[in-house]
Design goal:
It is built from 17 helices and 18 strands. By secondary structure, it is of the alpha+beta class. The strands form five sheets. A five-stranded antiparallel sheet has the order 5-6-10-8-9. Strand 5 and strand 6 form a beta hairpin. Helix 9 packs across helix 11.
């Protein structure tokens, strides 16, 4: 059992952090006590904003001695309530946003050391000033932080070529639950000292350690990119196109997103200054992007393959971006889907993954299962076909009282979706994590062996349960 922070502890923390790093002001804390989706709202005894790893370690030691729980938070842009404290008001919110330095960039080694509070978009710009690129991006790049991305093993739209955050993390610095600091920033290619703590902390959602900095792999800045918006009939045909492009173009294929017309329509209605790249309506669209060195070669390869796909009847229509501005416009449509869906009203969001070859089958079959069990239920799927990650949203039936319908059927609808995913050998969380939203579903549906291992690791590193309690592990 954790305890409420005593006046003595709060006083010590205030003295340690000073006015820039300590507050109990309700108005200042309020924006950080509700998750991005507005699904969870908690309370905190105070918000702590350390400016260094040493301060984080001192905070943890004080709280460990007092048996007070800490909830680490980055940009508060998570999708599963993983950085929101509970409603009890006894937990302390630990914000890493002040730790926002890019400590170093090594152009020869193509790596950088960035602190946990560095915003992803800022890091992108910093890398580009050195002729390099950090090859992970997502819709929330303007608020997501490096620490949050590490802690959730974020994915995004370039996983097809570069992998998830775990593949891009070469080293980690973190404070462990006893207040000790794990300095694993050295980018060792070989290290056989047992369990890989770097990989263990990446994706742990702050339950095992508080990530304070990371060494990250960079790649050369792409001298050229070519982007296409493609109209297509079905997800199965999209998979055939993916295989064709992958076989003929290879590593230059960096992004391959699938988008239904319903999602595009929502973006066009809710997001200002957006327009459809193709005037005619089609049931599905693919957003494909190549990145490489030679602009002419990329353009020739993409035009050749898409012309062949058109001639074969595999695709219906295609528009090629003429320049970076048009490429950015295409990606804005994709990146705005979550914002547009939120504006549409309440819906059940499922971030799931299945084997790539089975993603079209899941997209095609799951809506029928939903409708059979819940008459009028709908589903919209979009996401990263190249890596099998489907964002599967289930809005209430048209004309229904949305909140009431979700309150009555939401849990059962999600169980049906997740059971189908597991039946296909997939995961109930592809890139958003488990947080508190999926914690009970994980405990119910996942492998007993996996759950036992997760609980054992948590008990070994954080026996008092002080780090982000109530998240990930039930």
């Amino acid at each position: 059992m954790t305890r409420a922070p005593s006046p003595a502890l709060l006083g010590a923390l205030a003295q340690l952090l000073g006015p820039k790093g300590y507050t109990t002001d309700a108005d200042i804390m309020a924006p950080w006590l509700t998750d991005w989706r507005g699904k969870y709202t908690g309370r905190a005894a105070a918000m702590l904003s350390p400016g260094s790893t040493e301060q984080v370690a001192a905070i943890v030691r004080l709280c460990a001695e007092a048996e007070v729980a800490l909830v680490p938070q980055g940009g508060n842009s998570g999708m599963v309530g993983g950085a929101t404290p509970d409603v009890g008001g006894n937990q302390l919110l630990l914000s890493l946003r002040r730790m926002n330095r890019v400590r170093s960039i090594d152009t020869a080694a193509r790596s950088a050391v960035a602190e946990a509070g560095v915003i992803l978009e800022t890091f992108h710009h910093e890398a580009l000033t050195h002729g390099l690129r950090f090859p992970l991006t997502l819709g929330g790049k303007g608020s997501a932080t490096i620490g949050g991305l590490v802690s959730t093993n974020a994915g995004g739209t370039q996983v097809l070529r570069h992998g998830t955050m775990r593949a891009l993390v070469a080293g980690i610095e973190a404070v462990l639950p006893d207040g000790s600091t794990f300095d694993g920033l050295a980018p060792l290619k070989k290290d056989n000292r047992g369990y890989d703590l770097r990989h263990l902390l990446c994706g742990a959602e702050g339950t095992l350690g508080i990530v304070t900095a990371a060494t990250l792999h960079l790649v050369p800045a792409a001298a050229a990119r070519r982007t296409a918006w493609i109209a297509i009939d079905t997800p199965h045909r999209a998979l055939l196109l993916l295989r064709q492009l992958d076989a003929s173009i290879g590593r230059e294929l960096e992004g391959f997103e699938i988008i239904p017309h319903g999602c595009l329509d929502a973006v066009l209605r809710h997001i200002p200054q957006t327009r459809a790249p193709i005037a005619a309506e089609h049931p599905w669209y693919v957003l494909a992007e190549l990145a490489g060195v030679n602009d002419q070669e990329l353009g020739d390869a993409l035009e050749r393959e898409l012309a062949a796909a058109l001639d074969a009847g595999l695709i219906r229509d295609v528009v090629l971006a003429k320049n970076d501005r048009e490429s950015d416009d295409f990606w804005r449509l994709r990146d705005s889907i979550s914002e547009a869906e939120r504006a549409e009203g309440p819906a059940l969001q499922h971030d799931v993954s299945v084997p790539v070859d089975l993603m079209p089958t899941f997209i095609a079959d799951n809506p029928a299962r939903l409708t059979a069990a819940f008459p009028g239920a709908r589903a919209l799927s979009f996401g990263h076909l190249g890596d099998g990650n489907d964002h599967h949203h289930a809005p209430p039936p048209g004309g229904a009282d949305g909140p009431a319908w979700l309150a009555k059927h939401g849990t059962a609808v999600s169980r049906l979706v997740y059971a189908h995913v597991i039946e296909l050998g997939g995961s109930i969380s592809a890139e958003h994590g488990i947080g508190q939203m999926k914690r009970d579903v994980l405990a119910e549906l996942d492998s007993p062996a996996r759950l036992a291992a997760l609980r054992g690791i948590k008990a070994g590193l954080d026996p008092a349960g002080l780090f982000n309690p109530g998240k990930l592990i039930a």
